[in-house]
Write a structure and sequence with these properties.
138 residues, 7 helices, globular, single chain, mainly alpha
Length: 138
Amino acid sequence: MKTQQEIFDAVLDHLATQKKRSASRSWECQYRTVDGLKCAVGALIPDNLYDDGMDNSEKYSGNVENIAQGIKDGVYSSELNWVVTHEDLLHELQRVHDNIVNWGNTNDMRRSILFVSNIYKLNTDRVEPTIQAIFEDE
């Protein structure tokens, strides 16, 4: 099982590497896009456990709560039970990724990430390097 800190660090590493939102052509956030982008939560889901329904199902797609329900209902693999365990943290990290305002400037992104780290009492050593990596071309 993943710890909250491991999840937080993995998401920051992903954001620093990808440097953009995972969204459809209509700007809806997606766990996985056709061109290979992944959202904060989608990046944590191994390829062999990802299901297209996570982005396309009427009942079990969209926010992380719906994915967690799909796991509980047996629609998605029980190997993803850590999503259920850490549903609240994942929801907050999903909000950081999905909020288009955060991608506009360093202060909004920093504030959003630090808000999550404060709620869950997480180590913030990776926050500044993540912010610098995301916005290095600006």
